[in-house]
Amino acid sequence: MHNKTPHDLGYLIGLFGVVATLLWIGIFKYTPTEALQIKPLIENHPLISWMYHVFSVQFVSNLIGTFEIFTALMLIVSIKKPHVGYYAGAVASLIFVVTLSFILTTPGTFKVVDGVPLTDFFLFKDIVFLGITLITMQKGHQAIQARRQTA
User: Which of 75, 86, 100 is nearest to 20 (CA)?
Assistant: First the structure.
């Protein structure tokens, strides 16, 4: 029987935060408000701006939301099936790397307020989320290696 450590508890709390955020924001992507809110981020990104040439603003938002919801569900499954965590962590890490890259690709993201340089903190939080999903990916990789050794 595996004894839970404080590290495991901390990881699960962090994972809950990532899952809750992905679900919440993923669902919100289906609204016209969020579709318009993310438009400047998408249209200024060199790797994903092409989507607006092919799809509508709402469809792109729905697609991203679906991707976020699916990833959250994979992360939930990874709690009981750690090998799924490798793939869930990889997909979630991709989401957070792209989100963090918006800091560099979106005009007006950095500003100075009262002499202090600031960015949009809703993007910056993804550094923590990236860390949690990299741990998820590592746990998944360990689970896959363990399965191979016992097979």
Answer: 75
pLDDT in tens, 78-137: 999 999 999 999 999 999 999 999 988 999 888 888 998 887 777 778 999 999 999 999
26-80 per-position pLDDT tens digit = 999 999 999 999 999 999 999 999 999 999 999 999 999 999 999 999 999 999 9
Degrees, nearest 5: CA angle 130-121-109: 105
Cα 114 from Cα 31, distance rounded (Å): 34
What would you measure as the largest C-alpha separation in the chain, in angstroms? 61
Torsion, CA 6, CA 8, CA 14, CA 19, rounded to 10: -150
Give the span between the Cα atoms of 107 and 102, in whole angstroms.
9
The pTM for the full model equals 0.88
In whole angstroms, what is the distance from residue 85 CA to residue 134 CA?
9
Q: What is the DSSP string of 88-112?
A: HHHHHHHHHHHHHHHHHHSTT--EE
